[in-house]
Amino acid sequence: MKTLVTGGAGFIGSHLVERLLAEGHDVTVIDNFTTGRQANLDLADPEGRVRLVRVDVADPEALRPHFEGVEWVFHLAALADIVPSIDHPMLYHRTNVDGTIAVLEAARAAGTLKKLVYVASSSSYGFPDTVPTPEEEPIRPTHPYGLTKALGEQYVLSWAKMYRLPTVSLRLFNVYGLRSRTSGAYGAVFGVFLKQKLDGHPFTVVGDGTQTRDFTYVTDVVNALVTAAASDVSGECFNVGSGHTYSVNRLVELLGGEIVYVPKRPGEPDCTFADTAKIRRVLGWAPKVSFEEGVSTMVENIEMWRDAPLWTVDSIADATRQWFKYLKSEA
């Protein structure tokens, strides 16, 4: 099958590419390496079988030739992180919203699409009223990143209704695993903690560490992506989570090390926890990797984070200044 992955050089995208190659797909990757890394793609494709196209995902004319004959499209290309989205909302809109429309239109024009799977974000729920959070929960993003991902999803679902384009949206919860980001803006807790552990620095725990997250291992996410693509379901959204929620204190316990606390941030829920009943029932998908197993794999491969930035109390305070300026607490 001829398959295209936008953002295929990124963390999740490279794991997806690896899986698709193992299953015999003819894979094209579109990536401009804003956040993706060639090293990720080299690990996923050591034999160089992938056709790599370096174009701007929001450029419709540049995209269209590469969609000819494509049957599966996985749209992962996006700008992530909260603070940069506050600083550059128009850039985030162009990449995450305009880029999604451009991909939809390129897929529609090709006329060969069997399924387009969009990667949405659980951050679009904002502060959910219901935990575990079902797909029916209102979308109430608290920052531009969550808003642009939600808008992208609306286009994906609308194109399924308007143009009968076969699409599915997966709302991912707190994905972690090997190849997760080692540079860039302050954000994902695993990259921060693993570098701190490597350098013998204390873990910078936000608040009191009792906040919980639905940490979902990357191979489970890839399995959900492929399962959704292979299904006959269209015009639906699904949560993808681990089936549990874990405190930051539990993560620190598993990693082992000293702790220093930094102020609790506004605009973040105390708990993220996906209700996965729908994806289990409709697609027959279920997570397989336990939190303990996933963390153990990360620690075994901790050298991957050797060149990651070391975040300290002072540098975190500087990096999150805009966060505290613009975002508000749930109250």
Description:
40% of the residues lie in helices and 15% in strands. It is built from 13 helices and 13 strands. It is of the alpha/beta class. The strands form four sheets. The protein has a seven-stranded parallel sheet, with helices on both faces. A two-stranded parallel ribbon has the order 7-10. The protein has a two-stranded parallel ribbon with strand order 8-13. The chain is globular. The chain starts with a strand and ends in a 5-residue tail after the last helix. The protein has two domains: 200 residues, Rossmann fold; 104 residues, Alpha-Beta Complex (UDP-galactose 4-epimerase, domain 1), CATH 3.90.25.10. It comes from Tistlia consotensis USBA 355. This is UDP-glucose 4-epimerase. InterPro entries: NAD(P)-bd_dom, NAD(P)-bd_dom_sf.
Question: Layout of SSEs?
Answer:
Layout: E1 2-6, H1 11-22, E2 26-30, H2 38-44, E3 51-53, H3 60-63, E4 72-75, H4 82-87, H5 89-110, E5 115-121, H6 144-162, E6 167-172, E7 175-176, H7 189-198, E8 203-206, E9 212-213, E10 216-217, H8 218-230, E11 236-240, E12 246-247, H9 248-255, E13 259-262, H10 277-283, H11 291-300, H12 313-319, H13 321-326
Helix pairs in contact: 1-2, 1-8, 5-6
